[in-house]
């Protein structure tokens, strides 16, 4: 893919210099001590823009790029799901389909973006499809793509994370990202979840 992507990154805020001798290596820090910690939006956006540019040079089209972003998100999602389950005081594992979807809509979204998703809906046409929508996706707030790449949805990365969480919780599904603009929210993105048939069969047995 030869078309270059225009990326704008928010300016970073100044921080306090800490002597290196007092900074613990990240692998020596307790996982719970970083709970609630936030990464600046500018750092997050810069990192993702670098991922985009790196990936873009190694693909041949929009579908290929979205697939690569989804794959990267999947690897992130597997680790994030493990971390969230480990931090849960009750160590609860969701066994019901609606419960894991609600977990993604609330807990996962808050941990990633500081807010829950704007909606969780079931498809009126297909029993195996659910939709999680974000009216103003933070991930792509400062990313502008060229007109010839207008069909690209960089939130395929988020779809990969969602797919990994479902996979880790034993709810396999095909997860994709789609731009579904509505009045006032031109960048509104819907994460479409198409659950595996075995998941629906298991749900019937649990009723």
UniProtKB/TrEMBL annotation:
Residues annotated as transmembrane: none
Any coiled-coil regions, as ranges: none
Residues making up the signal peptide according to the UniProt record: none
Record's keyword annotation contains Chloroplast: no
Entry keyword set: Endoplasmic reticulum, ER-Golgi transport, Golgi apparatus, Transport
InterPro entries: NO_sig/Golgi_transp_ligand-bd, TRAPP-I_su5, TRAPP_component
Location(s), subcellular: Endoplasmic reticulum; Golgi apparatus, cis-Golgi network
Gene Ontology biological-process annotations: endoplasmic reticulum to Golgi vesicle-mediated transport
Keyword Methyltransferase attributed: no
One Pfam family it belongs to: TRAPP
GO cellular component labels: endoplasmic reticulum; TRAPPI protein complex; TRAPPII protein complex; TRAPPIII protein complex
Oligomer status and interactors: Part of the multisubunit TRAPP (transport protein particle) complex.
Homology family: Belongs to the TRAPP small subunits family. BET3 subfamily.
Name of the protein in its database record: Trafficking protein particle complex subunit
């Amino acid at each position: 893919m030869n078309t270059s992507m225009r990326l704008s990154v928010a300016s970073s805020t100044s921080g306090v210099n800490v002597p290196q001798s007092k900074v613990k290596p990240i692998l020596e820090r307790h996982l719970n001590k970083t709970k609630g910690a936030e990464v600046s939006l500018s750092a997050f956006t810069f990192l993702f823009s670098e991922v985009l540019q790196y990936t873009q040079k190694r693909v041949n089209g929009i579908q290929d790029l979205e697939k690569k972003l989804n794959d990267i998100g999947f690897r992130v999602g597997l680790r994030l799901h493990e971390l969230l389950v480990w931090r849960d005081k009750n160590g609860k594992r969701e066994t019901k389909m609606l419960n894991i979807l609600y977990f993604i809509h609330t807990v996962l979204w808050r941990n990633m973006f500081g807010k829950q998703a704007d909606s969780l809906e079931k498809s009126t046409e297909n029993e195996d499809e659910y939709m999680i929508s974000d009216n103003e996706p933070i991930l792509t707030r400062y990313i502008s793509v060229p007109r010839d790449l207008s069909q690209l949805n960089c939130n395929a990365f988020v779809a990969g994370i969602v797919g990994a969480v479902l996979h880790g919780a034993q709810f396999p599904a095909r997860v994709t990202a789609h731009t579904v603009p509505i009045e006032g929210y031109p960048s509104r993105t819907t994460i479409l979840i198409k659950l595996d048939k075995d998941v629906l069969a298991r749900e019937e047995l649990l009723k």
